[in-house]
């Protein structure tokens, strides 16, 4: 029940701060741009857009949310509320993942005319968004302003982008599939272009484990920086 109440508050907060409005505009722009692309490229463009945008919502937005809550004093009062650090993180992650799912499926339903595996797409966006939201929280640790977060996130983002770029050029390098961004992309791409069930289940299981341990790491950072009086 506490997580549900926190989730409602997070969604209201994000809506009030204009996150939903900004993303509606961005989603509409993506729809317009994709609509101009020849059909023969749609199978490649749509999964790339969905992976690099809706699935990245958490990474780009979590820093702004944390900074706003820090300025408003929300984080300082969190220690005296019944909400645990893990519940706080889960609520934030779910709220941004909902936004990612809405944007991803809106883009797909409007721009993609062929059939696709909506279950795999849903899970691909879900697991990727969770990972990037938690990863973004790690980046936000130690930042006091949004500008600091934007500067700090560049090298962290490159750590995840470079393996993807290498994978696009050399897809036969198996070890790259162990990188969470590559696993997430393969799930989303497979939703449109086909993927073996055993492979999909492997990616889903792997990303679930990665997200679980990432949550534990982020929880420790949160407790150290907030509960014990450090600087988030």
From TrEMBL:
Protein's UniProt name: ABC transporter permease
Superkingdom of the source species: Bacteria
Keyword DNA damage (UniProt): no
Lineage: Bacteria, Bacillati, Bacillota, Tissierellia, Tissierellales
Membrane-crossing residue ranges in chain numbering: 20-38, 44-68, 89-112, 118-138, 150-170, 203-223
Keywords tagged on the record: Membrane, Transmembrane, Transmembrane helix
């Amino acid at each position: 029940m506490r997580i549900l109440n926190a989730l409602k508050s997070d969604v209201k907060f994000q809506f009030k701060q204009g996150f939903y409005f900004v993303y509606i505009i961005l989603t509409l722009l993506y729809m317009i741009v994709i609509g101009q692309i020849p059909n023969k490229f749609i199978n490649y463009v749509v999964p790339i857009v969905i992976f690099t945008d809706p699935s990245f919502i958490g990474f780009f937005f979590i820093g702004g949310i944390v900074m706003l809550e820090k300025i408003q004093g929300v984080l300082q009062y969190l220690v005296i509320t019944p909400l645990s650090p893990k519940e706080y993180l889960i609520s934030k992650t779910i709220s941004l993942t909902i936004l990612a799912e809405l944007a991803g499926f809106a883009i797909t339903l409007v721009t993609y005319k062929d059939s696709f595996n909506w279950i795999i797409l849903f899970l691909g966006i879900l697991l990727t968004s969770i990972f990037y939201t938690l990863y973004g929280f790690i980046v936000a640790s130690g930042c006091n302003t949004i500008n600091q977060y934007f500067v700090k996130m560049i090298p962290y983002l490159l750590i995840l982008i470079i393996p993807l770029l290498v994978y696009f050029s050399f897809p036969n390098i198996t070890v790259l599939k162990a990188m969470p961004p590559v696993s997430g992309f393969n799930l989303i791409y497979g939703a449109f272009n086909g993927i073996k069930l055993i492979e999909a289940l492997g990616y889903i299981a792997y990303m679930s484990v990665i997200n679980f341990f990432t949550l534990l790491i982020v929880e420790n950072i949160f407790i150290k920086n907030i509960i014990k009086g450090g600087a988030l």
